[in-house]
UniProtKB/TrEMBL annotation:
<comment type="pathway">
    <text>Metabolic intermediate biosynthesis; acetyl-CoA biosynthesis; acetyl-CoA from acetate: step 1/2.</text>
</comment>
<comment type="function">
    <text>Catalyzes the formation of acetyl phosphate from acetate and ATP. Can also catalyze the reverse reaction.</text>
</comment>
<keyword id="KW-0963">Cytoplasm</keyword>
<comment type="subunit">
    <text>Homodimer.</text>
</comment>
<dbReference type="InterPro" id="IPR000890">
    <property type="entry name" value="Aliphatic_acid_kin_short-chain"/>
</dbReference>
<feature type="binding site">
    <location>
        <begin position="224"/>
        <end position="228"/>
    </location>
    <ligand>
        <name>ATP</name>
    </ligand>
</feature>
<comment type="similarity">
    <text>Belongs to the acetokinase family.</text>
</comment>
<keyword id="KW-0460">Magnesium</keyword>
<feature type="site" description="Transition state stabilizer">
    <location>
        <position position="196"/>
    </location>
</feature>
<feature type="active site" description="Proton donor/acceptor">
    <location>
        <position position="164"/>
    </location>
</feature>
<feature type="binding site">
    <location>
        <begin position="346"/>
        <end position="350"/>
    </location>
    <ligand>
        <name>ATP</name>
    </ligand>
</feature>
<keyword id="KW-0067">ATP-binding</keyword>
<keyword id="KW-0479">Metal-binding</keyword>
<feature type="binding site">
    <location>
        <position position="23"/>
    </location>
    <ligand>
        <name>Mg(2+)</name>
    </ligand>
</feature>
<feature type="binding site">
    <location>
        <position position="400"/>
    </location>
    <ligand>
        <name>Mg(2+)</name>
    </ligand>
</feature>
<feature type="binding site">
    <location>
        <position position="107"/>
    </location>
    <ligand>
        <name>substrate</name>
    </ligand>
</feature>
<keyword id="KW-0547">Nucleotide-binding</keyword>
Amino acid sequence: MTSTPNREGTAPVTSAQRILVLNSGSSSVKYQLLDMRDNSRLAVGLVERIGEQTSRLVHSPLTDGGGKRERTGPIADHEAALKAVAEELARDGLGLDSPELAAIGHRVVHGGLKFSAPTVITEEVMAEIERLVPVAPLHNPANITGIRTAQALRPDLPQVAVFDTAFHTTMPESAARYAIDVETADAHRIRRYGFHGTSHAFVSRETAKLLGKDPSEVNVIVLHLGNGASATAVRGGACVDTSMGLTPLEGLVMGTRSGDIDPAVTFHLERVAKMSTDEIDVLLNKKSGLVGLCGDNDMREIRRRIDEGDQRALLAFEIYIHRLKKYIGAYYAVLGRVDAVVFTAGVGENAAPVRAAAIAGLEELGLVVDADLNAVRSDAARLISPEYARVAVAVVPTDEELEIARQTYALVNA
């Protein structure tokens, strides 16, 4: 077996074709096993409520018509969770000891400025991920736990980190820096990093394919709209601006996050409401956004309430759309020329009223939505703008797991 070095370690070239993708959260592990010969999924699953008596593992083999299996009961920690996952995969002949498994790809939320590409995990890489914990305290520790556990189960197998922030490292300093004292910012790594990078990378590339062009030829505004939401301006395949910042709190109105807000609001709450830093953190991240405005963060429920005449739900929707329009317009100005505006993720892919409202009134920018095309429900990438529109409007389903698998497989076979 030969080896090809990359920037952080050595990626062994392998003839194996399968990639296991792990997304480790603080109390959950999502996983998918993919065959890279045709990008097919062999198994998918989720372990949730790790560390509780009510832990739950749902496993779905996707070969030979296998049905979904579920087990409940205490799963003590991530090590126990991954061992349970390995057992379920083994039952389907897809075990972690298979010679067909080429590598394990890990979603890592924060890679700072150091990691602009998928990276074979070494101790030096782990040390840097740990150094970034202060700017990603909810995510990087869980990612580290998942990596350590996977390393213990398969110490001989390449482990690859694919960073949410990597796609955004191409942002120019004019977009990435905040206008605060430079020495203070540099000392504490304060800058705009952006997130959802694997989704924005995948969707911008698939949008170019939908337009029949190379990614280097197109400028795209990607709107990743889920419970977390972000917008990215992509010029010729590279990110030039994105709405999330130091943390995923900045930017669009989200399910439970406020998005853009005057920083002085936090000082006001400390001084006048006597709220602690932790209380304000919870308020802005978990009790704001749509849920703070109307009590619901499910767009389907909000639309149902609007249809019934609920004014609070209507105002929440209008605030959500207003922020979306602002970012579409801002990124149109940043890019200068826009070939497509594309909607993705749970809300973006499924909520036709959101797409219609976000584009309404932007005809002077060349943006128009065809009502009939917009109403179609489909899992396929598709245009929802009329043929005469100067700028395409598209819906492109995201696939972050496939993107992680592709990047992982490309690296270990470089």
